[in-house]
Design a protein that fits this description.
The protein has 224 residues and is α+β, with helices and mostly antiparallel strands. The protein is built from 7 helices and 8 strands. The structure holds zinc ion.
Length: 224
């Protein structure tokens, strides 16, 4: 999929932040950050604030994958998140947007160090055919934390998200709105999985279902 233009990416980031709030998947603090890959050499648009409430285009800066600000002003406390975003673009050429939130139901799994299980039909519809893995904890934005994210990306080359142990989630897809949608279905799935617990717990798909779904997607393409 072609990378969106600068203005399309900027508009979609603002729309994606609104959508995350409208659908009620943000934590109470509204904490989060998001980025979009720009056409050209290792550049991204990145939020310069640490929450996504009322995100405006002026709160987006252009920055290199190494953290050099090209346009705008980046709050020093925001600089530490650069590596968490750029590592995904470096590992996944098809990814053009990355969003980090503390969406509460999904973050409960991250606190429990439990992968978010692939047990919900909506996952299959978005091409997710395995559990969302957990990256080990390390200080936020540290090289160690980034290395744990990269390790999960390499071990699970098709997943569009990783849980960050004791912290939150990182989701990524072809554009900001598609990435917001991944977070919405993860949060839905996390809530349904937790709600199913007193009923005996979520059950997996029938034997062979994931392979059948993969074949189906190859034939018709993902509907996302
Ligand atoms: Zn965070």
């Amino acid at each position: 999929m072609a990378t969106l233009s600068y203005s399309q990416q900027r508009d979609q980031l603002v729309q994606a932040a609104q959508r995350l709030h409208q659908t009620g998947v943000m934590s109470h603090s509204g904490h989060g950050n998001m980025s979009a890959r720009l056409p050209g050499q290792d550049l991204m648009l990145l939020t310069s604030v640490s929450h996504l409430t009322h995100l405006s285009p002026e709160q987006l800066v252009v920055i290199t994958f190494d953290g050099e600000v090209v346009e705008g002003t980046l709050d020093p406390t925001t600089r530490e998140i650069v590596g968490m975003h750029s590592c995904v673009y470096r590992e996944r050429q098809e990814v053009n947007a990355v969003i980090h939130t503390h969406s509460p139901r999904t973050t409960s799994f991250a606190l429990a160090h439990r992968p978010l299980p692939c047990v919900y039909e909506a996952f299959l519809r978005f091409g997710i055919t395995e559990d969302i893995p957990v990256a080990e904890w390390a200080p936020r934005g540290s090289e160690e934390a980034v290395s744990y994210i990269v390790a999960q990306l390499r071990q699970h080359p098709t997943v569009p998200a990783v849980l960050l142990a004791n912290h939150g989630l990182l989701a990524f897809s072809s554009d900001p709105l598609a990435t917001a949608q991944i977070i919405i279905i993860m949060e839905e799935s996390a809530q349904l999985t937790l709600d199913a617990h007193p009923l005996g717990g979520a059950q997996g798909f029938p034997a062979g279902a994931l392979e059948r779904e993969r074949k189906h997607m190859q034939r018709y393409g993902s509907t996302q």
